[in-house]
Automatic annotation (TrEMBL):
Protein name (record): Aminoglycoside N(6')-acetyltransferase type 1
EC top class, as a word: transferase
Alphabetically ordered keywords of this record: Acyltransferase, Transferase
Organism: Streptomonospora litoralis
EC number(s) given by UniProt: 2.3.1.82
One annotated GO molecular function: aminoglycoside 6'-N-acetyltransferase activity
Pfam families: Acetyltransf_8 (PF13523)
Gene3D superfamilies in UniProt: 3.40.630.30
Highest taxon above the source species: Bacteria
C-alpha cells in the first residue's frame, strides 16, 4: 500500500542519496550536497514555495518523491506549456521519481502516479486536469504516465531540466474523473 507524507528536513539526506542514483540523476539533474538539497527542497518544506513535495511510502518504507504544483503559480512555465497545448484554468502538474534502484522497472511508478492522482483529486477539488510535460527521451516516465491513465495530448519544445537533453517534450493529460 502506498501512503504519503509531506517532505520535511529529516528527509533531506535520503533525498540527496536518491538524487545521486544514476537512474534519478539522469532526469532530475540536481546537485546532491546537503546544502544543495536544503536550497532546493527547504523552501517547500517550510511552506515558502507553492509546490508541494510528498514522500511516497510503500508499506511504510520510503519509495519515492512526488511533487505537485498549480501551473498558474509558475507563469513562465505556464506560458511555455500554453504555447504547445491549451492549459485549463486551475490545471496542475506533477513530477516524480522512484528513489531506490531496486524498485525501478517493477510497475511501482505507475502505482505511485495513480495513487497520487487519487490524492490530488480529493485534496484539490478545483483542479480540472493534470498536465505533465516529459522529455521525449524519458520513455520509462511517459510509459508510466500512460499506464496510469494519462494520454499524450501534444509534443513540443520546452527547456529540459538536464541540458544534455533535446528540448522535445511530450505533454500528458488526465482530466478530473466524473461521477464519483
Amino acid at each position: 500500500m502506498i501512503t504519503w507524507r509531506r517532505i520535511d528536513f529529516d528527509d533531506f539526506a535520503l533525498l540527496g542519496t536518491w538524487l545521486a542514483h544514476p537512474h534519478v540523476a539522469r532526469w532530475w539533474n540536481h546537485e546532491t550536497s546537503a546544502e544543495a538539497v536544503e536550497r532546493d527542497f527547504g523552501p517547500t518544506a517550510r511552506g515558502e514555495e507553492p509546490t508541494e513535495d510528498w514522500l511516497a511510502l510503500l508499506d511504510g518504507v520510503p519509495l519515492g518523491l512526488v511533487q505537485r504544483s498549480r501551473l498558474a503559480d509558475y507563469p513562465e512555465d505556464l506560458a511555455a506549456l500554453s504555447a504547445i497545448v491549451p492549459v485549463p484554468d486551475g490545471a496542475m502538474s506533477i513530477d516524480y521519481f522512484i528513489g531506490p534502484p531496486d524498485r525501478v522497472g517493477r510497475g511501482i511508478g505507475t502505482r505511485m502516479i495513480g495513487g497520487f492522482l487519487g490524492k490530488l483529486w480529493q485534496e484539490c477539488p478545483d483542479a480540472p486536469a493534470v498536465l505533465v510535460p516529459v522529455v521525449a527521451a524519458n520513455t520509462a516516465s511517459w510509459r508510466a504516465l500512460e499506464k496510469a491513465g494519462l494520454r499524450r495530448v501534444a509534443s513540443g519544445d520546452l527547456e529540459p531540466d538536464n541540458p544534455i537533453d533535446e528540448p522535445l517534450h511530450h505533454v500528458y493529460r488526465i482530466d478530473r474523473p466524473t461521477g464519483g
